[in-house]
Amino acid sequence: MSSAPTTTFYEAYPLDRLRPADYNPRRLSEEAFVRLQASLRRHGVVKPVILNADGTLVAGHQRTKGLQAIGLTHTPAVMLGTKVRLQDEIQFNLLHNRVETEASIVYAESGVIGAWSWIPWQSIRVAERKNLSFVNAIGHMTAGHGPWGSVVIDDQGRIVLNAEYAVVASINRFDLLAWTVTSADAAQLHTDLTGEYGVYDWTAIESKAPVWNQHILQPKRLRKFSSKAKAGMLASGSETWDQLVTPWLKPTHRVVDFGAGYGDYAKHLRAKGFNIHDYEPYRCRDGSYAVDIRAVVGMIRDIDKDIQANGLYDVVVLDSVINATTSLDYQHWVMTTVNALCSADGVVCLGTRNLARELRDEQAKRVTSQTATTR
């Protein structure tokens, strides 16, 4: 059994005691909010909200608004055993809102229809496991914070919502919180709960901390761990740099690495005589999530001074930045800036993740728990 902090399930937690998180990343259209209310009237709350140990609402903001709109006063809730940091709050929110969209096939012992029950982990049978990266991401959060999710199961024992969470319960051997429905209601419930319920908007959090997926996902390129250093192996490289840029790059080219993370490739190639500047708006100090403002301002001034003296750049490298943008507007701003930095006859080298490769890696089960969250 896991030694993670114990979580607490409340079948009826007062809505007036909830403290909404001030970043609340999801925005709902009026039409989506009406559909949410209809679903709550039809099925009730079949997925508990998640609370931080201090009572802050981690996941379920729109659901609680929907409950209040239809006149209800309580909600099922899972409270975490210890107060988690802001970054983990956001990760819980992302996993919680995505968890019902997965496709593993899992069976278990069903409970009383229309009621909450605890399913013994020994009764869980995984017939088909899909989306290994998501399973690993859930497993990482349960290992660190205790069981926090739930499932919906029909009276025939088929888990119809949150099957990936059930896979994790089976692997890590913890009992599974479940709401049981009839088989006749299961299809309608799945349809109602897997529709589009809003979009993510991280603007409210930027005054408190950098955008989560920007400062967490900055790659540490060309770093050597001790075991790999002994074998002469690099810990992490970049296909964009290694295959697309450096084979033809010349020391006479003026280059800017836009969204450079920790700037490892720029440092590495500058040491070899290449003329490369780097810019990372969310540059953090090693071991910290705090933005290094002095370093960011320094990079901006360095690029501005270089452009004033020598003009726009021959090469602009955009490695994995588009993977981490959170909206089409954000992508537009990034691409506009990149094009503004590049000379009229210059080259933009753009690298993103390859969907075909991601699917192959998933099928080959090569995704590790360490990389699951970033993927």
Which SSEs are present, and which pair or pack?
Elements: E1 8-14, E2 19-20, E3 26-27, H1 30-43, E4 49-51, E5 56-59, H2 61-69, E6 74-79, H3 86-98, E7 105-107, E8 116-119, E9 125-128, H4 132-145, E10 151-154, E11 159-161, H5 163-172, E12 176-181, H6 183-193, E13 199-200, H7 212-215, H8 226-230, H9 239-245, E14 254-258, H10 264-270, E15 275-279, H11 293-310, E16 313-319, H12 328-341, E17 342-351, H13 355-364, H14 369-372
Parallel strand pairs: 2-5, 4-6, 10-12, 14-15, 14-16, 16-17
Antiparallel strand pairs: 1-6, 3-13, 4-5, 7-9, 8-12, 10-11
Helix pairs in contact: 1-2, 3-4, 4-5
Q: What percent of residues adopt helix (DSSP H or I)?
A: 25-40%
The quaternary organization reads as single chain
Spatial gap, N to C terminus: 27 Å
- Which runs of at least 5 residues are low in confidence (pLDDT < 50)? 366-375
Continuous helix count? 14
* Structure summary, number of beta strands: 17
* Category by helix and strand content: alpha/beta
Strand content: 15-25%
Gyration radius (Cα, Å) is 24 Å
Q: For the report, how would you describe the main beta sheet?
A: 5 strands, mixed
Spatial strand sequence of the major β-sheet: 1-6-4-5-2
